[in-house]
Input
Amino acid sequence: MRARVLVIGVLLVGGAAAMAVAQGSPRWVERTKADVRTGRGSFYEIVDTVLKGEKVDVLGSEARWQQVQTPRGRKGWVFEAALSAKAVEPGASDFLKLAPSDASTSATAASAGAKGVYAQVYARERGYDYGVVTFIESSQPPASEIEEFVRDGGLVLPGGGR
Output
């Protein structure tokens, strides 16, 4: 009985030590650019952006997201696929350093952007009425009507000109 308790104790201490080493270990940004967010998901606010080759310190891990501290001392979450356990050479281009902080290269962000999610947030933050865009999109004629319009000669201006 005493041996079993000792073995379990050693396993627990060893496991905790392994987790502490993994969480305190550095990681390097493997992608061209990765957003550091306030939560685990691409819809959370961006608190920092790290570029390829930058080193971050892992503070924790949950559901394939790594909680990190950036070189600028900011803390947040990065998806694990953006990080490498081995040092990565910095990117050769400074182009992304000039991009707005909400620009992203992640597939999730690109997909959401294509759906207009960022456009809606942009409009809301600046007090614009995004409902106008929704109205215009819902009022578009079907493709067949547009094709017919073009085929029949298009727009006729007042006075008969085209």
Q: What stands out?
A: The helical segments are 2-24, 107-114, 117-125, 131-138, 143-151. The CA atoms of residues 15 and 103 lie 39 Å apart. DSSP finds five helices and seven strands in the chain. Confidence is low (pLDDT under 50) at residues 15-22, 101-105.
